[in-house]
Amino acid sequence: MSMGIPEIENAKLLFIFGYNGADSHPIVARRIIKAKQKGAKLIVVDPRITESARIADMHLQLKGGSNMALVQAIGNVIINEGLADQKFIEDHTNGYEEYKEFVKKYTPEYAEPICHVPAEQIREAARAYAKAETSMILYGMGVCQFAQAVDVVKGLASLALLTGNFGGPNMGIGPVRGQNNVQGACDMGALPNCYSGYQSVTDDAVREKFEKAWGVKLSNKVGIPLTHVPHRVLEEKDEKKKIHAYYIFGEDPAQSDPDLNEIRETLDKLDFVIMQDIFMNKTGLHADVILPSTAWGEHDGIYSACDRGFARIRKAIEPKGDVKTDWEIISLISTAMGYPMHYNNTQEIWDEMRSLTPSFHGATYEKLEALGSIQWPCRDESMEDKGTPYLFTGGKFSHPDGRGKFFATEWRPPCEVESPEYPYSLSTVREVGHYSVRTMTGNCRALANLEDEPGWIQMSPEDCDKLNVKEGELIRVFSRRGSLMTRVLPTERVKPGATYMTYQWWVGACNELTTPYLDPVSNTPESKYCAINLEKINDQAWAEQCIKDSYESIRKNMGIDTAKKEV
Amino acid sequence: MNYFVKGNPDLCIGCRTCMIGCVVAHEGAKIFQMKPGEYVFNPKLDIVKTATITIPVQCKHCENPACMNACPVGAIEVIDNAVVVSQNKCIGCKTCMIACPYGAIDMVVSSDGSKQLDGNSRMVANKCDLCTGIEGGPACVRVCPTASLKLVTEEAVETSVSNKRMAAAISLTQVKE
């Protein structure tokens, strides 16, 4: 995020694009409500009536997969109506003329049939965004989980450049990141192309610095993105390039990744799979070795919030049973593999990381203790450097010339769209209460009491009438890749033709249906769009029994409860 | 006057923390200690979502409660400004459930684990009791992350009415005949 989360409350206008705070991050949703109470205007772009859309001043209920067309139509209106911040553009940006030329074609009338949003509404949204004293963009997986994702992120950033909404407080652009500490994973270099602090693995000076510190030779090649693993296992002919072993921790690809059939085939084809997690999960069913690790309340460390803020996490209880912290397990494995690794505590690891990462160097444990949270960059260890609440102060950007770069490109439709055989679209979404792949929340009884297997499919009342199905009834959902049963949830909050499922359920696992198409830059899968069909099940009693049996069999395979009963 | 909990749909995000708070307040820590399936989970309020509204619905604690008037065994009474079901007196006849114009009453398995004469679990009426006897007042109000729920007391109503009358009086002076 270019801004800090607390700044959300003080923006004059919030432009919320493909982000459903109430279900993904209730605590951020609370900030959105506070902003509204303080008089901020709210514009929400979402194919569903989310909680934010419900209280918004304007809701652009676009058709899923049309983001790029809408973003550029807004840019088009801002330029055509003379609302662009010419001074900011001249002083701080590059590529404006090309951008202007490119979006000429993207008039609201051009976008209307693509986005299913009235041209006049696009104009009104563009005017409001451009005219507000400070406008802040918040976006979520509704932008990132499309095959055209990075383009849309750059397109949204271009709107902020166009209107001078960078470089000051309460403005900018914020990806409100999906998972707990996903920001931290990226910050720490758990990516195939960088070390901690986004230092490139292809930069010789950086590599030599790490080689010297660690006393080993390091590769200068970018690694393999997570989502390329199935291909490298199943289709790679060159034995040297093929992946043979897979060490997975804090992740459940057999639940969270698209096209689960392919994932299971991949996991079974691998010579060796290690799974490291706090509870048994779907991936564990395919693992050769399971390493039990500690949960969030059982270990210390540093956490990064999505607004670049580091904060300490502290052990609340002593771990029970035969478990170790992730860092202890990694140290032991590394030592066993011939590279002795030993730390006494997380502070030693953090200090080593800081010594090798200029942009995090100033974020010491002592300072975190004193300040509570520090947003990077924080370069200096002295108390004067309290971190950076918002980026690009005074319009100075990260490109070598310090200028922001405009971006425009053609809108591309999703990779798999509706057809006569598969006439509905499916998007995977979140529900409040159950988090990510339910490894944690599925084991929390009060949350399981509110919602449990097999989950729901959100459908418009019109589609429910057409299929003659009622709330709570089990329905068969199938795509080109798989099929499952789930419960019908009629809701006026979705448009006819579009359906939505949450992705954590073991029985009604919607990733059986999703497509493995990726964004070419981020390699994030298009979880927000695939084509499906729906079929009424006449024998509901049989279907209910199938769900029960299927859940029981998964639990049995995972060894849940059965161990106790057999004693 | 009976008190009641009022929700503000402009603030509610539908997170259902109130529902869990309600169960924990009434059942206590035992729901975290018993085996799943051996305890009951009966929130006394329910989140309702339409295209434009999200808000929990719960008992209004009417001054002249249809449920209380309809109960044939006197199991519903007013205690400490709240309309409360005595589950030990309830015979599970469902009359109150039908009589309630707000849909605020449902029938659930009794949480005390008691059995009927036929050996089945006892079914009893379940509704908001404003956390009568629970320290700190209604749990739903306490746990709501957006402060969308408020306990409306007699004093709160009086203040609100008096403020509105004041505003009305001031606005009258601005009307020129």
UniProtKB/TrEMBL annotation, chain B:
Record InterPro entries: 4Fe4S_Fe-S-bd (IPR017896), 4Fe4S_Fe_S_CS (IPR017900), RnfB_subfamily (IPR050294)
Q: Which PROSITE patterns match?
A: 4FE4S_FER_1, 4FE4S_FER_2
Q: Which Pfam families match?
A: Fer4_11, Fer4_4
Molecular-function GO terms, alphabetical: 4 iron, 4 sulfur cluster binding; metal ion binding
Question: CDD domains, per this entry?
Answer: HycB_like (cd10554)
Q: Which domain of life is it from?
A: Bacteria
Q: Which UniProt keywords apply?
A: 4Fe-4S, Iron, Iron-sulfur, Metal-binding
Annotated coiled-coil positions are none
Q: This chain belongs to which protein, by name? A: 4Fe-4S dicluster domain-containing protein
What lineage is on file? Bacteria, Bacillati, Bacillota, Clostridia, Eubacteriales
